[in-house]
Specification:
The structure is a single chain. The chain is mainly α. It contains seven helices and no strands.
């Protein structure tokens, strides 16, 4: 019985250590790609909701977008870059935070406007989200 308890504690500690080690690596390029794919799908869902006049699809897409955008940021490689000039030119963390806030706010605006029957304003908010996406891709991702 005692051996089973000790084995359980050791296994739990190993799992927790593995999760902590993964987190300490920071935000990776692979995680960024996965998040970008989720956000692209969320934007497509919002657009489909507009075309089908379906508030549930719009709401789900906007909620997914809001939930995913909070994960996005500079990768660990970008943060640990020692080149002062590149750090100054990218200013990635500050700019990313600003863009994230705007996207979150606009995603909520899409939900609110579309639920209230103002599809035109919801579409304009959607367009502003796409504008923020492109701003990030052009400036930080060097498109």
């Amino acid at each position: 019985m005692m051996k089973q308890i000790i084995a359980g504690v050791l296994i739990s500690a190993g799992v927790l250590y593995g999760a902590e080690a993964e987190q300490s690596k920071g935000y990776t390029q692979a995680q960024r790609i996965a998040d970008m794919q989720k956000m692209a799908q969320a934007m497509q869902d919002i657009q489909s909701g507009f075309f089908y006049n379906n508030v549930d699809i719009v709401r789900d897409g906007a909620k997914t977008l809001k939930a995913t955008i909070v994960n996005v940021g500079p990768t660990i490689e970008e943060i640990t870059n020692k080149d002062i000039y590149e750090q100054y030119m990218q200013n990635g963390e500050k700019m990313t935070l600003k863009i994230k806030r705007k996207i979150e706010r606009r995603a909520q605006e899409v939900i609110d406007r579309f639920e209230n029957g103002d599809a035109v304003q919801a579409l304009q908010a959607y367009s502003k989200i796409a504008e923020q996406c492109m701003k990030c891709h052009v400036r930080l991702r060097k498109w």
